[in-house]
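Appendix B: a complete holo record

For completeness, this appendix reproduces one full record from the ligand-bound portion of the collection. The bound molecule is pyridoxal-5'-phosphate. The inputs are the chain sequence and the ligand SMILES; the output is the full three-dimensional arrangement of the complex, encoded as C-alpha cells. No fields have been trimmed.
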Amino acid sequence: MAFADGTADFRSDTVTRPTPAMRKAMAEAEVGDDVYSDDPTVNLLEEESAEVVGKEAAVFVPSGTMGNQLAVMTQTRPGEEVLCDGGAHVRNVERGAASALSGVAFRTVEAPGGRITPGDVDEAMALAGRFFPAIRLMVWENSHNLSGGKVVPLDLMEASNAAARRHGLSIHLDGARIFNAALALGVPAAALAAGVDTVQFCFSKGLGAPVGSVLCGPADLIAEARFLRKRLGGGMRQVGVLAAPARIALAERDRLVEDHDLARYLAEALAARFPGSVDLDGVETNIVNVDVAALGVPYPEIADRLASARILTNAPFAGTWRLVTHRDVDRSDVDRLVAALS
Ligand SMILES: Cc1ncc(COP(=O)(O)O)c(C=O)c1O
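The structure of the chain with pyridoxal-5'-phosphate bound, as generated:
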C-alpha cells in the first residue's frame, strides 16, 4: 500500500518505512554501548546474521557501502586490484571509496548480470602480477542491481569460485539483496555464501528495516573489520534501537517473495500495454528494467504524468528506467502507474 499521503514510491526498495512492529521493537530494545560489545540486541543480530549465511562472525555496520568497503580494506593491499563485473555496485556507485580507502583499482570483466565465468577469471589472472597489478580479491553481486535484479546461479558461482581459489584470490559477495537471490534461485542464502570469504547484506533494502547492513565472515577477519569500522567513524553506541528492527526484518525475510510477485505483475502489465518495453525473462526478483523508448512518450512527459498521479520513480539511466517493488507498494499502485503512463 502507498504511503499515508497517497504517494507510491517505485524508486528503490530502500524507501520502505519501518512497520509498527519494528517501531515498537525500537522503543523497547535492550541496549548497551556497542563499542564495548555491550549491546545485547546488536550481539543477537550479529549472531543471527552470521548463522543465516553460515559464517563464523558478523559486524553490524551503518550501510552496505561500509560493509563492502570493510571487505575490500581487510582483503587487499594498496596497489592491488579487485576483480568484478563492469556493472558492480562496489565499483560504479560507491563513490571511489575503494581507491580512496584501500588504494586499490578494479579489473573489470564484461559479465552481464554479474555472471562472471571461470574463463573470465582465468583471462583476468593471466597477466596479473606479472605485467599488470596483482589481483587479490574477487567480488560478486547477487542479486545484481544494475542488470535489473538478475541472479547469479549457484553452480556458476561455485565454478568461478573454484577458478578464483586456484589463483589464490579471496572472495567477497555483495549480497545487499542476497535473500532476493536465494528466494529466486530456490537455495538457502548460506549456499550462496558457502564459497566466499565474506558476505555483506542489507537490512534496509527489501527487508524493510530503517538502517543497517552486516558483514559476515571468519572471526579474525571480522575482528579486523570491527577495528576498521571504528577508524571510519562507524563505532555506534546504543545501537540496539537499530538492531531491533533489523532482527525483525531478518526473521521476515521470506516475505520478499511478495515483492517478486509484484515485480512480475508490473512487468507483465507494462509488456502488455507497451510491447517490447520489458524483457519478461529478465525479471527475476524485485526490479523491473524498462526500455523507456518503447513507451512512446518522452520521459519529461512521463515524469509530469506520474507526478500528477503521486507516483515517484527515478529518471532513466542510459535508456533504462528502473522500477523497484517493496513492502510499501501493492497491485493498486502498479495499476495506477500503468494507467498514468497510458
Ligand atoms: C548491490 C548493492 N550493494 C551495495 C549497496 C550499498 O548500500 P548502501 O546504500 O546501504 O550503502 C547497494 C545500494 O543500493 C546495492 O544495491
